[in-house]
Amino acid sequence: MGVGIQVEHLNAWYGANHTLMDITLHIxxxxxxxxxxxxxxxxxxxVRCINRMHETNPIARVTGTVRIGELDIYADVSPVEVRRRxxxxxxxxxxxxxxxxxxxxxxxxxxxxxxxxRVLDEVVERSLIQAALWDEVKDDLKKKSGxxxxxxxxxxxCIARALAVDPEVLLMDEPASALDPIATxxxxxxxxxxxxxxxxxxxTHNMQQAARVADMTAFFSISKGGEGERWGxxxxxxxxxxxxxxxxxxxxxxxxxGRFG
Amino acid sequence: MPSRYQPSALHRFRRxxxxxxxxxxxxxxxxxxxxxxxxxxxYLLFKGASSLNLAxxxxxxxxxGEPGGGMANAIVGSGILLALASAIGVPIGIGGGIYLAxxxxxxxxxxxxxFTADVLNGVPSIVMGIAxxxxxxxxxxHFSAFAGGVALGxxxxxxxxxxxxxxxxxxxxxxxxxxxxxxxxxxxxxLSITLKTASPGVITGCMLAFARVxxxxxxxxxxxxxxxxxxxxxxxxxxxxxxxxxxxxISPYNEWHRLAWAGALVLILLIVLSVxxxxxxxxxxxxxxxx
Lengths: 261, 291
Ligand SMILES: Nc1ncnc2c1ncn2[C@@H]1O[C@H](COP(=O)(O)OP(=O)(O)O)[C@@H](O)[C@H]1O
Ligand SMILES: [Mg+2]
What we know:
The complex is a heterodimer. Chain A is built from 10 helices and 10 strands.
């Protein structure tokens, strides 16, 4: 089951650039939450702070607290443990190119030392079913490489790979932006079927997509300071319906009605 | 919209001519590259094949004047030297490459190691032989297979280190992120994902280094020394194909010249065979259809 995410006073930097300014955001458990906003406002940075991928960049820095359930992920656990509990799906499908479909899905467990064949078989099947890919690949699980699938299938393979380690949260950074409309539809259906069991955070630049899949939506924007500084901040966070029909902030309204550049 | 552009006859002729000229040049360069290889191999076959018989592979050299004899001890000796060299050169070389690409990126130590590797790559092999003579043979007070293996092993390191580094750097960032994002510790991700993804190139680097030292004579002159008799001990001087070829080739005897040709042929065949074998073993089970 999923857990809620409490983000308090989160600040993130790349080198000297203050990228995210004082973000406080409570993401509910087992729902889908969308992050929208103009390019460069820090949506990717924000989700990477939630699973501590941000700090894999040597110039990156972060302050503030992030809790999943009762757990303070920056104080109580190692980054490796955090990433095991919080799965991530990237913008471009990134299956392991030298591995079969089966090995891709099993990789998270295997790389953590898990070897039981019967359990692995079960987990691979369950994860591929959850990712709505099982029927398309079940006959060549070990014969075909992950890289031989279509882009949409690769992305669902990456989702299956993330689900196989049984995460509580699934972060998706524009998971459909490299895909055609049919593959995008498949991913959106998948998100619908996954929420309820996992907490899903999805970054999207496509507002229809946010409207279709998300219960809550957060709008991020870029603010500019006096000496050419730019930083991303949270402008408005409420139900998806309110964001699109009755936004409280002028900037949100401009963005969702397309008046924003 | 269909194109309305109609090239004139002259234009068409020039395009076709240019195309054919380019093809001809490409074929010619291929022939120029391949021809010496084929020629060398054919000449070796011509000169050496007639002296190849069972005795060549089963007997040790006969004293001067006695006909027959073989290079069995040199074949086994080369095998032992190369096994020892690979046991030293491959792990150190790959380890160094991993350090340069994954852990030491941008550090001063990494730059120093990279520079050292490049210098080492340019050191003449005879100098490597003398260095190992001074560092291993003199303190031990005798020539040995061990010293020869060390000399060849060190010579393998820079090639393997630099190819490993380059191959690891070619692995896309997204692949590393995928592994880290699954909650895999960094060291594990480097070994099981990045290195594995880069392994075809890394193996090629190892084979290049192997094939290069397999034919080296100079680093063995003051280390392994050579041996007319059977020896498989690491502590004793040991025979090696390149050494034996060298000794026979500069001798004044026709019989020995023929054996030298045969030895050269066997050396090349063994190198080709071991490279092919490693390729076969390491690519078995690799999936086809990888994008
Ligand atoms: N690896 C990085 N190094 C330096 N700056 C970065 C890096 N990644 C992103 N940034 C900067 O951080 C800001 C936010 O980027 P990002 O989180 O990718 O925004 P979004 O996903 O909303 O488009 C941008 O100004 C971008 O230039
Ligand atoms: Mg982004």
